[in-house]
Amino acid sequence: MLTREQMAQRVAQELRDGDYVNLGIGMPTLVANYVPEGMDVMMQSENGLLGMGAFPTEAELDADMINAGKQTVTARKGAAIFDSAQSFAMIRGGHVDLTVLGALEVDVSGNIASWMIPGKMVKGMGGAMDLVAGAENIIVMMTHASKHGESKLLSECTLPLTGVGCIRKVITELGWLEIEEGAFVLREYAPGVTLDEIRAKTAGQLRIADDVREMHFSKEAS
């Protein structure tokens, strides 16, 4: 199965030169460490930082420089710092090219549930509702199943929705999937994972792409 770092590296392959990118809290923040060399990408944090860099070394650590998840980060050359109102104006105005988010559930219609489990957890909507409405391209980065083994890739979300019909790409520890015509289409699978295992852990309709392939990674993402 893929490590969190390998998942982040695979998502980073979707970056394009000149993109404005918002990384959600949790696993998505790792993507900042795998921007391809020579590519100019501006990472945006909803708390008001445009030009977020990789996580800091001990020498670079600044307790006042944080992302939306309150993790310490660095700022790249040319970065801008502003208030959250300006940050959300950027998001709501459609100026973010790519958003990478975590999720509790995703379904074959491209719906996403990411903010609460009634009676158990309410972590708050945060900026996710604005991000799924404003970004041109959204990638969900999550585990394929819950800690109880229940699939998170469903025919229909059971939890309160964050956004409707907005998700097209999903990466889990088992593979890379795209949502097309009411199904999850498996495009790439993790090394050592069988197609039968992915079928068994996907509750929503699953199709295997004709050109499905195994993922390959550099050693630093292993």
Automatic annotation (TrEMBL):
Q: Where, if anywhere, are coiled coils annotated?
A: none
Q: What keywords sit in the KW lines? A: Transferase
- Source organism, top-level taxon: Bacteria
Q: Does the keyword Transferase apply?
A: yes
- Signal peptide as annotated in the record: none
Asked if the record carries the keyword Transport, the reply is no
Which InterPro entries does the record associate with it? 3-oxoacid_CoA-transf_B (IPR012791), CoA_trans_fam_I (IPR004165), NagB/RpiA_transferase-like (IPR037171)
Against SMART domains, the record matches this protein to: CoA_trans
The terms under GO molecular function for this entry are: transferase activity
Family statement: Belongs to the 3-oxoacid CoA-transferase subunit B family.
What is the protein name for this chain?
Answer: CoA transferase subunit B
Write down the species: Candidatus Pantoea communis
